[in-house]
Amino acid sequence: MDINPETKVFGVTGFPLGHSLSPLMHNEAFRVKGINAVYLYFPSMSIRGVIEGMRGLSIQGLSVTIPHKETACAYVDELDPLASKIGALNTLFNRDGHIVGYNTDASGALDALKTVATDLRGKTVLIIGAGGAARAIGFAVVEEGCHVTVVNRSDRRGEALARDLNAAFCPLKELNSISSDIIIQTTPVGMYPKVDDSVVPEGVLSEGMIVMDVVYNPLETRLIRTARTRGCKTVTGIEMFVRQGAIQFKLWTGQDAPFDRMMEIVKKQLLHG
Ligand SMILES: NC(=O)c1ccc[n+]([C@@H]2O[C@H](COP(=O)([O-])OP(=O)(O)OC[C@H]3O[C@@H](n4cnc5c(N)ncnc54)[C@H](OP(=O)(O)O)[C@@H]3O)[C@@H](O)[C@H]2O)c1
User: Fold this and answer.
1) Could you tell me the pTM of the whole model?
2) In angstroms, rounded to a whole number, what is the distance separating the alpha carbons of residues 75 and 97?
3) What mean pLDDT is predicted for residues 72-101?
4) Pocket lining for ligand 1, CB < 6 angstroms
């Protein structure tokens, strides 16, 4: 790609950035759509400095990751209503110097769920975990009219999220005692290299249930594999990841993202390195 004075600059910020797949995914999307833009790594410990730099250098858009998703909310000029409710953002958009924050983790997860379960209204949902991903997905599914129970290892964090969502709480060790239409696994358990781990006992999974795992490395976690063999409909973490990226792309460029190509290149990277 030729870099010239019109080349728009995007990127990902957080610390550490190590293995982010976002540069690969977004640069391919720009290439496929013929957009004069580049997506770079911006490792930083200071989100305040990043946002000032974004204005000063006319950086058009940033993906925001750990540890800045919550603190960034204090430094933007405007926060999308869902990001404001969640109290965390993962996307910044520079509209002529006016920095707006969005949470596409929430909308990406919803989009992924809706491809499997077209209607979420009235469904019962167990959200396993109470961290950042659980929070984003929790607010999104509550807005869709789901009845949520937060299931977490530590009571303190689980009860706090349940309170914020106006939802029920169940300790992780009692997961066997409850059932639901949908299970959304949001802990890092099952992630490479501990690929044989799962927080969900097999007996909890029954035919027709929808099971989503936010972990995307490996592409098929032990939970997803077990759920498939028990007749559940499954949603993998990569579906959420690429969808949140596609929503960012649309926000930043105004164009539909080349979703299939983005999925293909991320999958290839995860499978073959
Ligand atoms: N697919 C996507 O697009 C996407 C997007 C965002 C995040 N993610 C993935 O989501 C995962 C969680 O991210 P996060 O930001 O929410 O993390 P986080 O804020 O650190 O929260 C982690 C949660 O997992 C629980 N947990 C951690 N280890 C556990 C274990 N061994 N057994 C049971 N529970 C455990 C924690 O429970 P306690 O409260 O008891 O500590 C906490 O509720 C990561 O793997 C991340 O890569 C995927």
Assistant:
1) 0.96
2) 13
3) 96
4) 105, 129-134, 152-154, 157, 172, 186-189, 191, 199, 214-216, 237, 240-241, 244
Q: Running DSSP on this structure, what letter comes out for residue 161?
A: H
**CA 119 to ligand 1 center in whole angstroms:** 26
The pLDDT, as a whole number, for residue 71 is 96
DSSP string of 95-141? ETTEEEEE-HHHHHHHHHHHHH-S--TT-EEEEE--SHHHHHHHHHH
CA separation for the pair 81, 103 (Å, rounded)? 9
All structural domains of the chain, each given as residue ranges with its CATH number in brackets, are 8-102+239-272 (3.40.50.10860), 106-235 (3.40.50.720)
Is position 69 annotated as part of the catalytic site?
Answer: yes
d(CA 273, CA 259): 20
Q: Among all chains, which residue has been given the structure tokens 């490479």?
A: 192
